[in-house]
Amino acid sequence: YKRQVMHTATSVDLSCGDLEEGIIEPAIHGTDNILAATSSFAPNVKKFIYTSSYGAMRSPEEDRDDMRIIDESSWNSLTMEEATQDGKTAYHYAKAQAEKLVWKWQKDWKNKFEVVIICPTFTFGPQCFDAYVGKTLNASCEPINLLVHGAPVNNAIKGYFADVRDVARAHVESLTNDNLNSKRLLISERRFCSLNVAKVIYSVLLQLKGTIAEEPTLTDAQNSSRFAHLANKATRNVLPFELMSLEQSLKDTVEQILRVEDAK
């Protein structure tokens, strides 16, 4: 019987006053503490599954370099000094340093347990239960919620996308699928921009409600920006399932929001 530890949480309060205390230290020390507890009290653990982030693979600045290719072997080059400049950079630095600890522990513990690392990109998708749908949603889905309720398009929302159910399934597969051992899984289906998101939401609302306050009018040119190129062929080759499309993910998210509101 294989015993596993799955570490999936870290602080994401990007607006906290003390970035080192609020983001960096909890991510690094929290991971170190879990690994130390595993070593001391659960030496029979055979697999350690860690939720890292696409942010561990590149910094915000590196993400805007369209000559750069980001794949499963990439790491951001952030320093501690750079990490304390803003919340997003602090988070990226913290995730990289915490993940490196996982690999170090495995090596120091003489490979007595397997490691699987899961690095999601920007994550959309419905809440796990309808009861979790409130006036505001989690940080990743709140931009969708705002658009559903008539907010203007936020051109800052852009990057690479994964559906939350695919991220969850990658975790579940990691528990039992030994083909994923020692893998760093970069979970991303495609690139997106705010125009993609707004147009899909407009289409769904038009179909379900028959009307919407205002159709998105941004042009593709207004949404274009330089991005590093994400290459996750190695991940797609080992995952035993296809990644969900942006359109389906957004449709399911919007339908859940409307279903909950209609039931009230």
Short description:
This protein is α/β, with parallel strands linked by helices and 264 residues long. The protein has helices at 19-41, 60-63, 80-83, 87-108, 142-148, 164-176, 194-209, 220-223, 233-238, 246-263; strands spanning 3-7, 45-51, 69-70, 114-120, 122-124, 159-163, 184-187, 190-192, 229-230. It is built from ten helices and nine strands.
Characterization of this structure:
The chain is an alpha/beta fold. The protein is 44% helix and 14% strand. It has helices spanning 19-41, 60-63, 80-83, 87-108, 142-148, 164-176, 194-209, 220-223, 233-238, 246-263, and strands at 3-7, 45-51, 69-70, 114-120, 122-124, 159-163, 184-187, 190-192, 229-230. The chain has a four-stranded parallel beta sheet with strand order 1-2-4-7, with helices on both faces. A three-stranded mixed beta sheet has the order 5-6-8. A two-stranded parallel ribbon has the order 3-9. α1 packs parallel to α4 (87-108) and α7 packs across α10 (246-263). The longest helix is centred in the N-terminal third of the chain and has 23 residues, at 19-41. The protein is globular, with a radius of gyration of 19 Å.
